[in-house]
């Protein structure tokens, strides 16, 4: 359950757990979410997303797990950093090549 959220992981986990534990008391999972979301001060859509991500993370439904999402973000940052370093190296190589090509130095 990753992502930028003003709510702690513990709050998200508790809200999801309540939906799971009390699901049978409601006509649908959505009805449970609609009842529980206000108790945590979140929108029904926010809680629905938390529940869906928990289901993905548990392997109950297909999708990108929180761990995979975190790894993708890390790799994207690393690729961007490597691209910047590569551009710097290209510029340096071009500069030094130009210096070597100057006659009479």
Name the descriptors.
105 residues; mainly alpha; Arc Repressor Mutant, subunit A; 2 domains
Fold and architecture overview:
The chain has 105 residues and is an all-alpha fold. It folds into two domains: 1-63, Arc Repressor Mutant, subunit A, CATH 1.10.10.10; 66-105. The protein is 69% helix and 0% strand. It has four helices and no strands. The chain has helices at 9-22, 29-36, 44-57, 66-101.
Tell the overall outline: rod-shaped
The percentage of residues in β strands lies in under 5%
For the record, what is the CATH homologous superfamily label of the largest domain? Winged helix-like DNA-binding domain superfamily/Winged helix DNA-binding domain
Largest sheet: none
- Structural class of the secondary elements? mainly alpha
Provide the residue-averaged pLDDT: 92
List the total number of helices.
4
- Reported CATH architecture of the largest domain: Orthogonal Bundle
CATH topology tier name of the largest domain:
Arc Repressor Mutant, subunit A
Distance between the termini: 61 Å
Radius of gyration: 25 Å
Low-confidence stretches: none
Secondary structure: number of strands: 0
> Can you give the helix content as a percent range?
55-70%
CATH class of the largest domain: Mainly Alpha
**What is the number of domains?**
2
**Would you list the SSEs in sequence order as H and E?**
HHHH
